[in-house]
């Protein structure tokens, strides 16, 4: 089997509401999504998606994905997509770094492999749990009542996991936000307080020590792994890493040095499933739990994350973020797993299990063959 054509689509995905993170430092209203279709000489087609969370959040942006695919296209054409590690190696040799640009091609290869072997991706990753994964919301930063309002809206859809955005120079406000949300937390809810690198070491120690009695988990409380390692020394709250978990080397250092208790694996950021599954294995080998997430995007990106999440034993998985409910546009109506009763569940459909509507995507912006 050989890849014969790479079709690249560009689609803007508007958010239902303006979204703030890093203590209100960053605002997002639309996501720049790239969809990739791989055609093969065996008549099997695979789909992938790459959707960074805007252009200002981390070193990744929508046009960069399309530029990266242009650079890598000739290195990928003619390869067997079922041999995902050979495709991965070809991309890495052709374009060092730029992991986020490789993720949609990697996803499409896994989709093809699953269809070729008549298995869902989660089973190819080692075997899926039959139960689904708690679906996590992403709660925009704001006043305590505003944030609780968002959580209450998602509770109506059955969500039991929430990523609440905190962070900023006003430590008193962050303490107020956290205590207010915890006072209203339901017994079965999973709440992660995501700082998105917004705190200095001093601010992190103030807030985390002030709410240490609550036993809550903080994600990315500092800018770098070095910052988090120092914050770890002066606080007792559990820590999750997200933005600074990019490479397998990062994962090994975090595990080896005990920097964090939780991995936040974002598939687009780390370069796709081929690289993310190695991080999963490092985490389990060191007793580290995981949140699995897309960086943003449609039901395709959510489904990819759900496949990885459902390949993780229940004692190691916390939740899987679902972005699709934050969007005004559905690119695959009636296709793919959706959040139901607070969980997202992969079934036995071969491959990714979701196909976008090409009429909604429009014409490809470029085709390589």
Tell me about this structure:
The protein is α/β, with parallel strands linked by helices and 369 residues long. The chain folds into 2 domains: 3-118 and 358-368, Enolase-like, domain 1, CATH 3.30.390.10; 123-344, Enolase-like C-terminal domain (TIM Barrel), CATH 3.20.20. It has 13 helices and 13 strands. The strands form 2 sheets. An 8-stranded parallel barrel has the order 4-5-6-7-8-9-10-11, surrounded by 4 helices. Strands 3-2-1-13 form a 4-stranded antiparallel β-sheet. Strand 6 (190-194), helix 7 and strand 7 form a beta-alpha-beta unit. Helix 1 (62-76) crosses helix 2 and helix 2 runs antiparallel to helix 3. The chain starts with a strand and ends with a strand. The mean pLDDT is 95.
CATH architecture of the largest domain: Alpha-Beta Barrel
Q: Count of helices? A: 13
Report the uncertain regions. Answer: none
Task: Provide the number of structural domains.
Answer: 2
* Helix and strand sequence: EEEHHHHEHEHEHEHEHEHHEHEEHE
Q: Span between N and C termini?
A: 15 Å
CATH H-level superfamily of the largest domain: Enolase-like C-terminal domain
User: What order do the strands of the largest sheet run in, or round the barrel if closed?
Assistant: 4-5-6-7-8-9-10-11
CATH names the topology of the largest domain as TIM Barrel
- CATH top level class name of the largest domain: Alpha Beta
Strand fraction equals: 15-25%
Tell me roughly what share of residues is in helical segments: 25-40%
Mean pLDDT: 95
Q: Tell me the radius of gyration.
A: 20 Å
Shape descriptor: globular
């Amino acid at each position: 089997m050989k890849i014969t054509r790479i079709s690249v689509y560009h689609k803007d995905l508007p958010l239902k509401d303006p979204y703030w993170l890093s203590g209100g430092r960053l605002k997002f209203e639309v996501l720049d999504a790239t969809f990739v279709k791989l055609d093969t000489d065996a008549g099997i087609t695979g789909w992938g998606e790459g959707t960074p969370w805007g252009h200002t959040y981390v070193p990744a942006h929508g046009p960069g994905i399309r530029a990266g695919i242009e650079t890598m296209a000739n290195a990928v054409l003619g390869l067997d997509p079922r041999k995902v590690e050979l495709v991965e190696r070809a991309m890495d040799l052709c374009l060092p770094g730029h992991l986020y640009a490789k993720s949609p091609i990697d996803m499409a290869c896994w989709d093809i492999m699953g269809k070729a072997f008549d298995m869902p991706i989660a089973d190819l990753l080692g075997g899926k749990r039959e139960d689904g994964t708690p679906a996590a919301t992403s709660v925009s930063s704001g006043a305590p009542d505003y944030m609780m309002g968002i959580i209450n809206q998602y509770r109506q859809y059955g969500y039991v996991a929430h990523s609440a955005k905190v962070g900023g120079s006003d430590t008193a406000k962050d303490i107020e936000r956290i205590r207010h949300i915890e006072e209203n937390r339901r017994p079965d809810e999973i709440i992660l307080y995501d700082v998105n690198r917004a705190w200095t070491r001093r601010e992190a120690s103030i807030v985390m020590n002030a709410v240490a009695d609550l036993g809550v988990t903080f994600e990315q409380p500092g800018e770098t792994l070095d910052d988090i390692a120092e914050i770890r020394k002066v606080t007792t709250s559990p820590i999750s890493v997200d933005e600074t978990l990019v490479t397998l080397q990062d994962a090994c250092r975090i595990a080896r040095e005990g920097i964090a208790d939780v991995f936040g694996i974002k598939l687009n950021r780390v370069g796709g499933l081929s690289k993310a599954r190695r991080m999963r294995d490092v985490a389990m080998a060191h007793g580290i739990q995981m949140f699995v997430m897309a960086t943003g995007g449609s039901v395709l990106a959510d489904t990819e994350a759900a496949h990885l999440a459902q390949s993780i034993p229940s004692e190691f998985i916390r939740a899987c973020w679902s972005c699709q409910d934050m969007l005004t546009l559905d690119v695959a109506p009636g296709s793919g797993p959706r959040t139901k009763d607070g969980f997202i569940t992969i079934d036995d459909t071969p491959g990714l299990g979701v196909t976008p509507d090409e009429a909604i995507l429009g014409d490809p912006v470029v085709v390589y063959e």
